[in-house]
Specification:
about 55% helix, five-stranded parallel sheet, alpha/beta
Length: about 325
């Protein structure tokens, strides 16, 4: 089942005897687990009928015995197994899952990786319960996720602000959601659109000096702006470490190299093939006119060279700021 389907069922008090939430993205697993923990039972029912166990501190026998109990003065009991990925002999839960207790809601929260789908345990979970795999959202889809998250709160965000948050926080949804919640709390009531100014003021990400703005400046071959940004980076090496800058540049120019070899440069096709945010395809279109594919290939070679230099190879004394100046000069000329 999908995340929203499960959430809708839970909100409508449609409960299943067992839930497996597993996968690499902990955000959705935590949200579903917390919803069950907070909402299935009333506060008075929780005292006798809600048990939370942790994988590293328990075993299959304890989970099974707890799940087999009958609820007290309630229609259901809730048993939540958190950090299930750390439990030894988790496959022994198979013996319970072949015939789960109808009055028990067993939640297995298995984060950061999937449960082995070849096991009897997994097959029993599919047969007798609800299985949800929480997959990592690719970086290029994070701006879209941010927009949907804010839409749920009746707010919107402009493209540059969404890209700025993505560039700074990556695809760690817990971090992104936390920062968005902070933005929502501080956003004036009458304002409905989050801008780069809001992001700079409330999250602390500079709207003028960040890897996203550097990529934009390079795409437009804006020499003055690019040098102003790297000068700021050089003065603040802890805030803008060179591996982060080079990583962002490599992402941009490797996509640009791919753009050069596309036969269909329709916006949707570009976004789909290169796996980039659709509203940012203009950067690649513009940059392709400034840098031919031979130049882009050389730039990627420069990035590898300066990545090694930043780690001390063939570099005796150059600072981060000096390395960035050399690198950006070679990219622009």
């Amino acid at each position: 089942m999908e995340y929203n389907q499960i959430l809708d069922e839970l909100k409508n008090k449609i409960y299943r005897p067992v839930y497996l939430f597993h996968g690499e993205e902990p955000y959705f697993i935590d949200k579903l687990t917390q919803f069950i923990q907070d909402n299935v039972l009333s506060e008075s029912e929780k005292s006798f009928n809600q048990t939370i166990l942790y994988g590293k501190d328990t075993d299959a026998g304890t989970v099974i015995n707890t799940a087999k109990r009958y609820p007290m003065m309630s229609s259901h009991q809730v048993v939540i197994l958190k950090e299930a990925q750390t439990m030894k002999e988790i496959n022994d839960l198979y013996y319970y899952l072949e015939k789960p207790q109808k009055s028990t809601i067993l939640v297995i929260s298995h984060k950061y990786k999937t449960l082995d789908k070849r096991t009897k345990l997994f097959k029993s979970l599919q047969k007798n319960g609800v299985v949800f795999e929480s997959k990592k959202i690719p970086d290029y889809r994070i701006p879209e996720w941010i927009a949907k998250y804010l839409e749920h709160h009746k707010k919107s965000i402009n493209n540059d602000a969404a890209m700025l948050i993505t560039e700074y926080l990556g695809n760690d949804l817990n971090k992104v959601a936390h920062e968005l919640d902070k933005l929502l709390l501080t956003l004036p009531e009458k304002e409905t659109t989050i801008t780069t100014n809001h992001v700079e003021t409330n999250i602390g990400i500079s709207k003028d000096y960040n890897p996203f703005e550097l990529n934009k400046a390079l795409a437009e071959k804006d020499v003055l702006k690019a040098n102003r940004i790297i000068l700021h980076f050089g003065k603040n090496p802890n805030e803008y470490p060179i591996p982060l800058i080079i990583g962002s540049l490599y992402f941009f120019f490797s996509k640009l190299l791919g753009y050069h070899f596309l036969t269909n440069k329709n916006k949707k096709q570009v976004a789909s093939t290169l796996k980039v945010y659709p509203n940012m395809t203009w950067q690649y279109e513009k940059a392709a006119k400034k840098y031919n594919y031979q130049k882009v290939a050389r730039i990627i070679s420069y990035l590898r060279e300066y990545d090694l230099k930043s780690k001390g190879l063939n570099n005796v004394s150059a600072t981060q700021g000096e390395l960035l100046k050399e690198l950006i000069f070679k990219i622009l000329h």
